[in-house]
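SEVERITY: medium
COMPONENT: batch folding queue
REPORTER: lab tech (J.R.)

DESCRIPTION
The queue accepted two submissions in a row. Attaching both inputs and their returned structure tokens so the on-call engineer can compare them side by side.

ATTACHMENT 1
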Amino acid sequence: MRVFRAASVCACVLMVCLAGCTVGPNYHTPSAPTAPGWKEAPPPNPPNGSWTQATPSDGALRGAWWEMYGDPQLNALEKRVAVSNQSLRAAMEQYFQAREQVQVARSQYYPTLSAGPSAGRTRESNNQANTVRGVTTYQYNAFSVAGQAQWEPDLWGQVRRTVEASRANAQASAALLANVELSLRAELAVDYFQLRGLDLQKQLLDNTVKSYTDYLKLTKIRFQGGVATDSDVALAQTQLDTTRAQDIDVGVARAQYEDAIATLIGEPAPSFHLAALPLAGNPPPIPAGVPSELLERRPDIAAAERQADAANAQIGVAMAAYYPNVSLSGTGGMLSGSLGTLIQGPSEMWSLGASATELLFDAGRRHALTQQARDAYQQQVANYRQTVLSAFQDVEDNLSALRILDQEAVAQAQAVNDAQRSLAISTKQYKGGVVTYLQVLSAQTAQLTSERAQASVATEQFVASVQLIRALGGGWNTSQLPKL
């Protein structure tokens, strides 16, 4: 009969708990600014132009976006980022911590249970108030095997809101992990193309040194024949030496990019080397899609939105403090003064209890904490909207860069052709004795400057294409967020 009454009490308590409510505002994704289309729409391609913005029908970006460049060396390096990069590993461990925090929050749904034996011997004081003089001090043994249960039912949704916040924080951490990986891979690609651009500059300068060496030989022959002056030889020698110095100087920047790549793939810089491979070809077309898709494709936007969700849940956690704290507890087991009678029916003992506590006065603390949570939510909403605006800016900047660089590449190619023609004319006139070597020198300088500028523009085109891919999210989307 006692067991039946206890079960009835527990059933009633459980019904009350199930009837609890969840306080605090429910989350809705904050509104964010967007646009119907990109300002940098695909323009008419200039003559001999190479840049054309891909349309959504060309296919969206995929996870292994670097394979679009068709460079086996880049592909091999990118594979090593996920395995060896320590910054990515640190971000991954941070996500694992956030994921485990979800389970920590969920554990509060359930009671805590504990059990264990105990043994003790007690001697009572002779000087107690109820002790009779002359009576021998009472001593006794106590043996028990007991278990305890304690539970704070989630009547007001505090635990539910805590779980909601933990889940959103874990998803934000997963999005930040994706953003770190995207940034590292894009940085690797940028460094790689910068290095290959320097290889192109080195190739150009090597060829120029050979050409200037031939010019110096020609000038010396003409000087020995009495046609040229000693000043012409000195100018030719100066031009050759200056170009050699530029050729050597390219190695400084190349070494720095090579070391940066080594760090990105988790390899000590002294043991890493990339063979020279001059940059060639044009970057692939990049599918930009429509602006509204950017909200789903950028991991940093997803992280900001998830952080807003977590902040919203914290409002409910703060509001739950206005309601009473209810705690249920129970103890059951065997208690006896002798081990021989411990596991017997008369040794049975149990107790059930419940308590409720309501805070009556806190000098406005709960109100301040709730308002603080609301302010934190508004802060995260503002951060989310600013992240969206910055993302639109990133895409537009790189779309503009690609379009303008393509036009610049066409103009620069024409400048190189003009400079080559000018040098050919000046060389012919110099050999004919019509002009001095100073005019040849000017034509040489103009040609080298134009050719190096052309190599720089080609490098910038590849870098801008990588930055556009990064701005578009690199093929990531919110469907990859973990379902926790």
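ATTACHMENT 2
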Amino acid sequence: MSQLRLNPLNGRWVTVATERATRPADFAPRRLPVETGPSRPCPFCPGNEEATPPALETYGRDGSWRVRVVPNLYPAFSGAGEMEVIRIGPVFVQAPANGIHEVLVLTPKHDVGWAELDDMDAGLVMAAVRDRLEDHGRDSNVRYTQTIVNHGREAGASLEHPHGQLLGIPFVPDELHAELDGFRRFAAADGNRLGADLEPTQTDDCLLCRMVEVEREAGHRLVVDDQRVTVVCPFWAGSPYEMLVVPTDHEGQLARAMPRDLVAVGRALRDALARLQALVGDVAYNVVFHTAPHHEDALFHWHVHVVPRLSSVAGFEQGTGVLINIVAPEDAAAQLRSTTHLP
């Protein structure tokens, strides 16, 4: 029987319809070709650095780079200044898309994705993300930075070379507002759980701290778990093999995370993606980082969403916003744990 599950992060319902499930092998990878060809050298490969604007950051040893951050040649957000909303009629409102748009080149190797990075390189990528978020946070007009990695054409990648993007924008998007509200709702409700003689702590009030605690006790939705980070197929997953990566230490701002936590998250994300690849093949996916907005001290816990592109968003999902997941998270986690992989 299908089941409704509430996502406490954003307050939305999802439907788990296990009777519609298929085996992992039935999810054929749908990797459409991305732009390539001898007439257009890859701008992210070593030796082609002149094809991009000068690097904002480079990480590496012995004069060779391992991770590189450059301005996006075709930015969705650019320019300085405050967000000025202009009304041009009774129903039309617009504003300049000021902000920052950067490309994060994950590796000099053209055919190596995050799933194949070694521990050091995975840590370097996370260090680059932290450094760029810290830099964006110095701009009073950038209120939030969205970090993403799109793998495969179905996930939005237009170039094959593994890369991510950092978009500093002049407003806090609705998805983050929804998650901030989710943390506030949980903190308000969770106060009833504590004894009258106990003082609540920040981690007692944190939705994801509590989720990690109960998921470690239950065990059946865990994919990767060590002292510093937990990867789960969340109870409320809206798509097959969706995962949530949560550092153990409570911190709202990724830019303030300890180096050991950044390294652990990079490694755990690598292991989770390697397990996904071993189970369903070279599937397209999105990696989405969520951190507290810049210039705010909100109750939040930074985390990473992994969303494989194994199912379509059809009319019901578009019309209602209610996702249908045909693989129960408990089954997905068990299948991912059972895979053997060599990161």
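NOTES FROM REPORTER
The chain has one domain: 3-338.
No errors were logged for either attachment.
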